[in-house]
Amino acid sequence: MRRALKPMSMSKMWLHARRSAGGLLKDHSGIAATEFAVIVPIMLVIFFGTVEISSGVAVDRKVTLVARTLSDLTSQAPPPTQSQSWSTVDDNYLQNVFTASIAILNPYAADPVKVTLSEIYVDSTGKVATIQWSRAATIAPGATQATLAPTSSHNPRDDVTSIVPSKLLVPQTYLIFSELKYLYKPAIGYVIASSGVTLSDVAYTRPRQVVCVVYNNLPAINGACPTT
What is the DSSP letter of 149? Predict the structure, then answer.
């Protein structure tokens, strides 16, 4: 025969409920899994954010180095003879200069890069700076050499006074001006936008061995540097 269940008084029910609640609070068997579920998403954000931002900073430094190197290489173009005050660069010379970007950007892909080299002349007043010549280039995916673009963002005689630092506006002087834009796309795109961030930089250098650097011997006038 089954025993009849004795009715439990309210006081005993309350005591039993307190003991059950106390036992539940002392049970830590699932706390590690709960903490793991809460912490992992935060840790992933920190990890991927650190990787993407660190890589972006590294690429940004390389962008600055490329801009300075291209300007410096062009400014070092030697004169045809020691008696001449100007040197000449042509498409072949500039293509080799632009190609240096690939080695500098390694191990990052060089194909998102767009580069421009120009020469600027500051007039006799030191208040107007104009473009003498300008060439641009791009790098195709997997290419080992830069490709010269048919056009540039600057044209001869364009007024670029506003983009030249005031301390570089020295009357009757020349500047080699390099511009670079690079679209940095993170590998994961977890923190930085997967569409990428455009990094850019510019550099100015003065011709090292000559007064000016002319493109394809033009517009050198009577063996002297152009002033228009």
Answer: -
- Taking the C-alpha atoms of residue 213 and residue 83, their distance in angstroms, rounded to an integer, is 15
Phi/psi at 192 (5° precision): -85, 145
Which residues are within 8 A (CB) of 174 and not within 5 positions of it... i.e. 6 or more apart? 119, 120, 121, 122, 132, 206, 207, 211, 212, 213, 225
Residue among 197, 67, 65, 176 at smallest CA distance from 131: 176
Residue given tokens 């030697």 in the structure block = 78
Distance CA 87, CA 80 (A): 6
d(CA 219, CA 128): 19
The helix/strand/coil state of 14 is helix
Enter the pTM of the model.
0.76
**Ramachandran region, residue 54 (left: φ > 0; alpha: ψ -120 to 50; beta: rest):** alpha
Q: Read off the pLDDT of residues 67-111 as tens digits, 9 standing for 90 and up.
A: 999 999 999 998 877 778 888 899 999 999 999 999 999 998 888
Instruction: Answer positive or negative: Cα dihedral of 100, 106, 110, 116.
Output: negative
Q: Dihedral sign, CA of 172, 214, 74, 155?
A: positive
Q: How is residue 95 written in tokens?
A: 């293509």
E strand map for the chain? 86-89, 113-122, 129-138, 147-148, 173-184, 197-205, 212-215
Spatial distance between the Cα atoms of 120 and 130, rounded to a whole number of angstroms: 5
DSSP 223: T
Residue type, 71: S
